[in-house]
Amino acid sequence: MKTKVRRLDLKEVDYSPHVQLRIRPKGIFFEADCQIGMYPFRFDIQLKEGDMSLICQDLQARLEDLKDAYQTGTVNTQQTALRELAETGYSALRKIFAPAEN
To answer: How does strand 3-4 pair with strand 19-26?
Structure first.
């Protein structure tokens, strides 16, 4: 099975901190519209509603942990909560932006 990799042909001067991403249902899966600087593109996300729901629940739980750590925790608990949020976010991005399968 071959994997199709999506790449943007951007030059160094094209990189911009402005990224817009809109994800919406498309049949049983999802589709994303992404705008990086002046370059729009669309791609399919091979996740079903339950998968996307779990990603959102995990992110929300880590955000709540981070909020609690900053309200009542020590520096150690704050750092741990921030690291866990970063790891969960990284995992979510890898799932959402996984290469399309043919």
So the answer is: unpaired
What does pTM read for this prediction?
0.71
**Helical (H) or strand (E) element with 26:** strand 19-26
Mean pLDDT, 10 residues at a time, the chain of 102 residues: 54 63 90 83 89 94 96 94 95 84 60
CA distances from 70 to 7, 59, 67, 94 (A): 38, 17, 5, 27
C-alpha 99 chain-centroid distance: 14
44 forms beta bridges with 31
Report residue 49: phi and psi, to 5°: -55, -45
Confidence (pLDDT) at 90: 93
